[in-house]
Write a structure and sequence with these properties.
- The structure holds 2 protein chains of 2 kinds.
- Chain A is mainly alpha-helical.
- Chain A has helices spanning 3-28, 30-40, 43-65, 73-97.
- Chain A is flat and about 40 Å long.
- Chain B is mostly helical.
- Chain B contains 5 helices and no strands.
- Classes of the chains: A mainly alpha, B mainly alpha.
- The interface between A and B is medium-sized, with 34 and 32 residues.
Chain lengths: 98, 159
């Protein structure tokens, strides 16, 4: 795969997991939620902007540093699938039981 | 019949989401039958996925911030509070996953998919994940809508 693809796949893995962690942490941390709200008027809006910036920034860094090129493409695909499954199940279970 | 701005934005959000999911399935099927001749069509379909999901993000985000608080209060006072506590909370955060995948898809489809099996598997996985998470989010939207409906029915039944 090209370094652009591998870089942004790795970035997507990290962004997806970061998004899940931030959703759970802000749910139990009122000061963090209030801070996110103060940035863009709503915590959800700020979280979306952070996710977008993180995806673009990490992707650009991984493309320029060629870090992701050292990872086997099949492993990158597996990592993305695992990250999305963790995100989906994690968010569902968190809001169901916490 | 009165169609409010809130209704238009909400329905546009759902419509763009469904179109994005359909386009992801389109990408999936095209990649299963990948040839040099359909490479441009795959890239165009991937771009349609990204544009539809970004449009769904903007419409849904605007509606969520400006119009949802009153519906949230109704849901929480009604018989289906889990429509917000579980389904909306999960939906609003799972959607970011769908959106990131939708932005990744046009990048991944720039690969030579007819000759690169690793890239082909990646695009198939990304397209499938977009369709699955997107339809999950759509389904959650239906439950949230039902949460509002049963809350309003309860209010109207009270003497």
């Amino acid at each position: 795969m090209t370094r652009a693809t591998s870089g942004f796949v790795l970035s997507a893995c990290i962004t997806v997991l970061f998004n899940t962690a931030l959703a759970c942490v802000k749910d139990v941390n009122a000061p963090l939620k209030a801070f996110l709200k103060s940035v863009a008027g709503h915590d959800w809006t700020t979280q979306g902007l952070i996710d977008l910036l993180l995806f673009v920034a990490l992707g650009s860094i991984f493309v320029s540093t060629r870090i992701s090129e050292r990872i086997d493409p099949a492993r990158l695909t597996e990592a993305l699938v695992v990250a999305v499954v963790i995100a989906g199940l994690g968010l569902g279970l968190w809001f169901a039981f916490v | 019949m009165t169609i409010s701005l809130s209704d238009v934005i909400l329905l546009a959000h759902a419509a763009f989401g469904v179109l994005g999911c359909l386009a992801a399935v389109w990408v999936f099927v095209e990649v299963l039958n990948v040839r040099p001749e359909n490479a441009a069509r795959i890239r165009m379909a991937a771009l349609v996925v990204a544009v539809c999901m970004v449009a769904a993000w903007i419409c849904g985000g605007y509606w969520y911030v400006h119009f949802y608080p009153s519906e949230k209060a109704l849901i929480l006072a009604g018989p289906w509070p889990l429509a917000h506590n579980l389904f909306m909370e999960t939906k609003e955060h799972l959607f970011f996953v769908t959106a990131i995948l939708a932005l990744l898809l046009p990048i991944a489809t720039r690969e030579r998919l007819d000759t690169n099996s690793a890239a082909r598997k990646l695009v198939l996985c990304v397209a499938a994940l977009i369709a699955i998470t997107g339809l999950t989010v759509e389904g959650a939207g239906a439950v949230i809508d039902h949460g509002v409906k049963v809350a309003l029915l309860k209010v109207n039944r009270q003497p």
